[in-house]
Amino acid sequence: DFSRVINVIRILDQQRITEGEQRREEMQKAVQGDTCASAYPPAAVTERLQQHAAHVENQTRLRAGADSSDKADPGSGTGNTRDM
Q: How many angstroms separate the CA atoms of 71 and 53, rounded?
């Protein structure tokens, strides 16, 4: 039963890969003669996209760390506190 599930997952993954390759080929053919589509974007656009990707990656890490940090050190936050 488990091996059938793994086999189905492999088949679906291969289909996804094949469909992705076909889409890429179709897009390449569609923009083949388009000079705008084949031109590189301005450096400022590339830099901004890289900044955005880094920001999203950092936010993802922070969210993942927020869940695990409380579990990693159960005694955190119970240190010395002073009443005023």
A: 28
Which letter, b or e, does each residue of 15-52 get, where b requires 16 or more Cβ atoms within 10 Å of its Cβ?
Answer: eeeeeeeeeeeeeeeeeeeeeeeeeeeeeeeeeeeeee
On whether the CB atoms of residues 38 and 31 are closer than 8 A, the answer is yes
How far is residue 72's CA from residue 67's CA, in Å, rounded to a whole number?
9
The tokens describing 34, both together, are 């388009």
Evaluate whether 37 touches 31 at the Cβ level (below 8 Å): yes
Supply the pTM of this predicted model. Answer: 0.43
3-state DSSP assignment of residue 24: helix
Write the pLDDT tens digit of every residue in 37-52: 888 999 999 999 999 9
Q: Is the pLDDT of residue 17 over 70?
A: yes
> What pLDDT, on the 0 to 100 scale, is given for residue 63?
87
